[in-house]
Amino acid sequence: MMSRDLRRPDLGAIPGLAATWPEARTLELFRRLCEIRHFDLRVRRGQIEKDVDTLIYLSVGQESVAAGVSMAMRGSWLLGQHRGHSFYLAFDGRREPLVDELLGLPTGCCGGMGGSPPIHDIERRIVGHIGLIGDQVPVAAGIAMARPGERVVSVFGDGAAEEDYVLATLGMAASRKLPILFVCEDNDLSVLTPTRDRREWLLADVARGFGIEAVDIADDPWLVAHWAETLSDRLPAVMNVRTCRGLWHVGTGSDDNADWDRFALVRETLAELGLADKAAAIESETEKGVEELWTSRLRTRSAK
Ligand SMILES: Cc1ncc(C[n+]2csc(CCOP(=O)(O)OP(=O)(O)O)c2C)c(N)n1
Ligand SMILES: [Mg+2]
């Protein structure tokens, strides 16, 4: 099976899954999605308006992966890649040092010098990325070995999945039974190169070859949360999640050619569940909260 054939918004779907969730849990899931989306849209605006002049990588379009995984794994160690605001927020990283970092303030989590890739909040077990794609995966294994009994989430892209040290780490995690949930945010792109021009193998097949349980699914957030929860008791495990990058690789541009619009699909499901009004209220609340945060940090910056 070629990777491209698996790029479908319903890959791995479990019909009726969302309807089995209690309303409060669904609304919490949607709140996390909205926080990520409105945060990154605000970062984008900040760069367009020249308040943000650092290196940024945005998760617009891919929000549901982090939101879904966090429903089961918040509190674990988290090692993400350069496109990491989504996981940082979903794993409850502190907001102010993140905004300050993007605004170039010394109170930022990297002293205002790093931009998106190295954002971290060690007290909350969120470890930053140095910029070499996939290198966070062996580091995640190191943390799992150094901290027996603590779970680790290791996030990487479909491009990074091709690095030898990522694949070697899967083998090691299998041999040592390390409690790591490996999450591949598979947007089918390494910068601008689609997967079909890079490889023919599937990450899930490779993982299974090592004896690791693996799923290959679309980014329906209920489905992502379902598998994160199911696999959290059977680690190590791999989730390859098909998702769509809504903006350019780096910065703020948009090429408007995403295979699907997950956020719109989630809104449709919420409407089917009779939750359209509550969802709309959550969306405007989170948007307002993000705006208030940015206004207050921008005010702090101009006072300096
Ligand atoms: C080891 C290494 N090789 C190459 C690069 C250059 N590079 C930066 S981002 C990127 C693509 C990453 O793709 P993916 O892992 O799928 O993440 P995405 O940007 O799609 O989220 C590449 C090749 C790098 N940073 N590190
Ligand atoms: Mg990619």
Poorly predicted ranges: none
- Count of separate DSSP helical elements: 10
**CA distance, first residue to last residue:** 57 Å
Strand-residue proportion: 5-15%
Bound molecules: thiamine diphosphate, magnesium ion
List the secondary-structure elements in sequence, H or E: HHEHHEHEHEEEHEHEHH
Domain tally: 1
Helix/strand-derived category reads alpha/beta
Largest sheet: 6 strands, parallel
CATH topology: Rossmann fold
Report the CATH architecture.
3-Layer(aba) Sandwich
What would the average pLDDT be, to the nearest integer? 97
Number of strands: 8
CATH superfamily: Thiamin diphosphate (ThDP)-binding fold, Pyr/PP domains
**Looking across the biggest beta sheet, what order are the strands in?**
2-1-3-4-8-7
Q: Write down the overall geometry.
A: globular
Rg calc: 18 Å
Task: Summarize the topology.
Layout (H helix, E strand, L loop, with lengths): L22 H26 L14 H11 L3 E3 L5 H6 L4 H8 L23 E2 L8 H11 L5 E6 L6 H13 L3 E7 L2 E2 L2 E2 L8 H7 L3 E6 L2 H11 L5 E6 L19 H11 L3 H28 L1
Parallel strand pairs: 1-2, 1-3, 3-4, 4-8, 7-8
Antiparallel strand pairs: 5-6
Helix pairs in contact: 1-2, 1-10, 2-8
Give descriptors for this structure.
single chain, 304 residues, alpha/beta, Rossmann fold, six-stranded parallel sheet, two-stranded antiparallel sheet, binds magnesium ion
Short summary of the structure?
It contains ten helices and eight strands. The protein has 304 residues and is α/β, with parallel strands linked by helices.
Commentary on this structure:
The model has no long low-confidence stretch (mean pLDDT 97). The protein has a single domain, classed as Thiamin diphosphate (ThDP)-binding fold, Pyr/PP domains (Rossmann fold), CATH 3.40.50.970. Helix content is 43%, strand content 11%. With 304 residues, it is α/β, with parallel strands linked by helices. α1 (23-48) packs across α2 and α1 (23-48) runs parallel beside α10. Bound molecules: thiamine diphosphate and magnesium ion. Magnesium ion binds next to β5. Thiamine diphosphate (TPP) is lined by residues 81, 83, 131-133, 156-160, 185, 187, 189-191, 249.
